Structure formats: C-alpha cells, structure tokens
Amino acid sequence: MTDVRFHWTSPGMVPARHAVYPPEEGDRTEAWSDRLWSAVEALPLERLRAIQLAKLQRVVAFAWERSPFYRRLWEQHGVAPAAIQALDDVRRLPVVRKEDFEASQQARPLFGDIPTAPPGSPTFMKFWSTSGSTGQPRLWLATKEDHENDMYLFLRAFYAYGVRPGMRGYFGFAYPPFEAFWKAHYAAEAMGCQVIPKGPLPTAVILRNLTRWHADFMVCTPTFALRQAEVARQEGIDLRAIGIKIIVVAGEPGGSLPGTKALIEELWGGARVCDAFGMTEISGPVLFTCDSQATRPAPLAHMGLDYTLFEIVDPDTLEPVAAGQEGGLIVTSLFRLGMPVVRMFTNDLVEVTAERCDCGRSFPLVRGGVRGRLDDVIFYKGIKVSPAAAEVAVRAVPGLGLEFRLELRGEALTLTAEALDAADPAGFPALAAALQQEFTRLTTLRIPATIVPAGTLARAEMKSRRVVRQ
Would you call 99 exposed, middle or buried from its count of C-beta atoms within 10 A (0-12, 13-18, 19+)? Predict the structure, then answer.
C-alpha cells in the first residue's frame, strides 16, 4: 500500500484503510496515460484475477470477523474464510438477495446486523437509501474509506468517457438521499471539474441558465435526458447552445440500447452518450462504456474487475452460463467493508462477450450494458418480455414520441406509445400497426399496440416506470 497515493491523505479523514490496494494503482490522484486513469485498467487478465482473489479473501475475512449477518449466514452453510483459496471458491458461499438485507433491517432497524462497525461510529461517512424502484428502500452506510473508493471508481469512469480536468459538468438530478449521482459529483470535483447541480430548480429554468453558463458534459438518467429535450422543445430552448459534448447516463437501461442512445444523441445536438451501471449496495460504475465504445451504435461496457467480482449465472439454477449467453448477475464488492456485499444476486440481466476493445483496457466487455431486471420481466405465453424489448421497438418506429408503457392486466399484455407532438390522429392506426409488427419481430409475440397523443403518459425526472401490472 505504500506505493499507492490517495486523494485523502489526512489521518483524520481516513484513519486506517482495510481494503487491498495493488501497487499498480500508483498515484490515484493523477491520470496514468492520455486514455487510462490507472495502470490497473491495462493489466493482463491473470494479474487482474490475482488482485481479485487477494481482495476477495480480505473482504470475506473482514465480514466474517465483524458482520454478524455474514458470520451467521456462513456458519449456517458450514463455510468459513479459509475455504476461499481460489476465485471459483466464492461459489461455496451462499447467494444473498435484497430481501435478505431487507429482512435484517426490518428485524433490527435501521441498518440490520450487516455493518462491520457500530452504525453511529465516526468511521461511517455516508448515509444512503436505495431508490425503492424494486421494493422497500434499503438503507446503506459507507465508511470514509468506502466513500473515497466510490469517488475513485466514478472518476476513473469519467476519464474513460472523455471527461478531463477543467471541464464543467451539469448534474441533472434532484440530490435525493439515494446514492444516485452523488459520488459522480464528488468524482468530478476530485478530477478538477466544475459542477453545476440541478437540484430542485425547474427543468426549463436550469436549461435556460445553461444556455448562458454552458457545460461540457451532463450526468443524468436516460429518462431525464429525454425529458429535458422534450421541455426544451416546448420552451423553444436550443440545447446545442449549452455545448454539452458527453452525456453520462445511469440508473436504468438506455445508454446501451441503440435506439435510445441514438435518440438522446440526436436530441442533444450530437453529444456522445456513455453508459454506467452501479447499485447503492455495490457502488459503481462497475460497468462503463469508454470513449471508443460510445462511438458505436451498440456499445459494449467494460467490467471493472479490480473492484468487483462478477458471476453470470442461470437465474433459476444459479449455475454459470457460457460466454455469449445472457444470465443473471451476482456481484461481490471487493472494497466496500462498512456494509459488505458478498455474492448478491442483483436481478439484472447481462451477457459477457469475448470481444476486446481498442481503448487499451483489458477489462472484459458486456454486450448491451444491463439488458433489464428480472423484476420487470413479464412471462407471457411462455416467453420472457422485458421493457428493453418494448423500448427498442418504440425507438425503431418513426413518428413515435418518447414515452411508452407495457401493461399486463390479468392475462392481457398491451403496449401503449405516444405519438410525436402535433401528430395527426388519423395516422395513429398506421403507427400502431408498425409498432405491433416491430414488437413481434423482436419477441415473436403479437400483442395489441395503441398510440396516444403526445403528453398523455406520466413523466419522470429520474427513472420511468414503464411496466404496469394489474
């Protein structure tokens, strides 16, 4: 660790660091090259696997010693830290799900018995809540060391996107208590960027101000990138006047869906869309598209192997799937020690590919980012249907607007989409037929499609709820 330089050097800020830091990280406060922030990103896979194992052993031992939740769970399954001698040994440990964390926190409010230190101790720096988009919000704590690493991961991803010191970034979210883009804010400041927070300002007001203030990059959800473009059109605001060249989206699929990515880029005057994936429990971005991938219509996302252990499995059997097959995601955070996450099944669908990127990173690639969540998948007539399939269909039909809904009411599945502003209702049947045909092509299912006037469906500034079950 003596060879690694951190952003926070004061003993009062981080009195002791407990995670493993490979010497290749070097000076974390400065870029290693003109393309890569850290030399670790270009290490051979064999070395990355060795780093993963050292970090995994440390996390498991730390959780065993200090987290009653994991000690109890692993003792029930007859496994102890000594069993982890190779990366594949992680499968000896039981999988945990968000419901397990929720049950712990309901039984022992507020934080359950997951933390490795008393929740009120000064070692904890950050209080987070999940967004609650897939159930009861869970509370999560981050130590000072955890938070510094959170910031570092997003800083490294920013550099991959093409963000550089001295740029000005606009952060299009309301700064709620869930983690969202807070760590991105801190990362941009640590890199040496100026930050413009939206906060509670009305969308039209902040966009008008930005035409005077200008910004080089924007951070928001795909939903809000589209919503802002809609507001700009309604208010007569020219988004090109803001000057945004890079749009970093996260929080939901979209940044790696070709149709949605292309639409955002078109609406924002040719700005390049980059994708990020993370979770409150595991931090992130653990998946990110670099500047090379962002130029592709269908980008691939890098897997940050040195800070996360990924397992792609069959959602039913939890057995590993072969490369090139879609599977459910199990993740282990290799650095978060305040509230460890070891083998959490995230309900996200991903596909690892054997392709390699020309950016210089040796991190493996995921096709299409996160395809969606198993929570949102609808089983209809024996076929799995995700909101991403509906979104791809909507984006492929000229004349359709931004919003859509996939609705399951009893045994009936329908797809509703908005037409563009001022569209002639006489053309709605033709649009519905085209949408129905495209959805059938993607899923083999033939379901009713309905077109409604622009502005009919509810809007959101963070994540859109596009699956309705009744």
Answer: exposed
